[in-house]
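Risk mitigation, structural track. In case the binding assays with zinc ion fail to produce interpretable data, a predicted complex structure has been prepared as a fallback.
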Amino acid sequence: MTDKNRLRIAVQKKGRLSDESIKLLKAIGVKLSIRDRLLIAHSTNLPIDLLLVRDDDIPGLVMDGIADLGFIGENELEEKMLERQASNEPAEYKTLKRLEYGGCRLSIAVPNEFDYKGLESLNQTKIATTYPYLLKRFLVANNINAQPVMLTGSVEVAPRAGIAEAICDLVSTGATLEANGLEEATEIFVSKAVLIQKSEALTAEKQKLVDTLLPRINGVMQAKE
Ligand code: ATP
Ligand code: ZN
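Fallback model:
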């Protein structure tokens, strides 16, 4: 059962942000009993519920006010914000804290044999990506006439499959690019995980709870330095 008096925090169910986000919540004193396959998890010591969802859904849940807080990568957050702005859907949120995990960059990469001589080499190409809005913004800002091709997965094999000449994808070490015969051409967005809050005011009790949690996050982050 969900209780609207409990603070609802959206967290990625399974993936690169899950473990660190849960670890951080536990480190600031939120006791959790998480059972596999469930969408919701309750804290056993505080009026907090976790919504365990795909990271793609987190920005929308916060912007629609369904979740009070959310842990999300800035890449996904910014992409969803641009997508929502384009279709006049609510796209407001507050950033409470930039976190120290989930670091990555969104980069354009080209096959090793591509004769890349700078951004202008991308003119008249198709670029496969899961982030069409961030890519489009970069292309427009740099006056490049390339066509984003939306793929929700397997972006790195698009050039080999003849779907696109280049890709725009998340990179951390570059090992995946290398394994697919690609090299980084240019970085377009640098990202970390952030904690966001819905823009609409929380109830006084919920706000009080958030106000006690935030300094603890700062404390945990400082202790790590
Ligand atoms: P979901 O099933 O929740 O949609 P996903 O496959 O979209 O999962 P993950 O691969 O778990 O997502 O990545 C989630 C987030 O982790 C990314 O959006 C990004 O902010 C961050 N991240 C950090 N390093 C990387 C990386 N090397 N590759 C991809 N994402 C990374
Ligand atoms: Zn995702």
